[in-house]
Write a structure and sequence with these properties.
Layout: E1 3-8, H1 13-17, H2 21-29, E2 32-37, H3 40-47, H4 57-74, H5 90-102, H6 107-119, H7 128-137, H8 149-165, E3 173-176, E4 181-183, H9 188-198
Parallel strand pairs: 1-2
Antiparallel strand pairs: 1-3, 3-4
Helix pairs in contact: 2-9, 5-6, 5-8, 6-7
């Protein structure tokens, strides 16, 4: 079975705008997804990136326009300035890592639920009640929010190191088994075509 390593951040607007399209592509091609939440702020610092707030005004303005265009293009609710952004991404990421290990629910749905909470529902994804609701909605035991914190922290850090080592510099970022890299939700169509060529 083909595997896709999926590096993403629970604070990333573009990870949110990917929706569930990666999961649909994986199903279409019989591929599995390795979900790897990471610290996007640390990733920027390690790979020469600049935080959105520190970018030149021309880049800030373009990013604003592009996010709105992309959300309208795919018909997704999107709040350009969510009430709770930025926030601490670690608690939601640790819960995701615990859920991935648990495997009893729908990980793709959980990822999207957390991202949607931030970018469309005005919820603080650092808050326990928000994380528990997302877990429950995706078929997981909400108590996973309180378990495996040490493992979560270790895996979260390891995902960052792996990302840097493998040439990841943003989110969402997809790497196929044959080493092809795709950056951004607007490259999912290219990923789809690539996987089709492999089968």
């Amino acid at each position: 079975m083909t595997q896709i390593d999926y590096f993403f951040a629970t604070l990333s607007p573009y990870s949110y705008l990917a929706g569930l399209r990666l999961e649909e592509i994986a199903t279409k091609h019989g591929a599995s997804i390795n979900y790897k939440p990471l610290d996007i702020i640390a990733l920027f610092g390690r790979t020469g990136g600049v935080l959105p707030k520190d970018r030149h005004i021309s880049r800030i303005e373009y990013r604003t326009q592009e996010m709105m265009r992309q959300s309208q293009k795919i018909g997704m609710d999107f709040n350009l300035q969510p009430a709770h952004w930025p926030t601490n991404a670690a608690p939601s990421s640790y819960a995701l890592i615990a859920a991935i290990k648990d495997g009893s629910g729908d990980v793709g749905k959980l990822c999207h639920s957390v991202l949607r909470a931030c970018w469309a529902e005005e919820k603080d994804i650092a808050q326990d009640e928000v994380i528990r609701e997302c877990l429950s909605n995706a078929g997981f035991n909400p108590d996973l929010a309180d378990s495996g914190l040490l493992v979560g922290a270790e895996t979260y850090a390891a995902n960052l190191e792996e990302a840097v080592d493998r040439g990841v510099f943003g989110a969402p970022f997809y790497i196929t088994e044959d080493g092809q890299r795709f950056w951004g939700q607007d490259r999912l169509e290219d990923l789809d075509r690539h996987l089709a060529a492999l089968t």
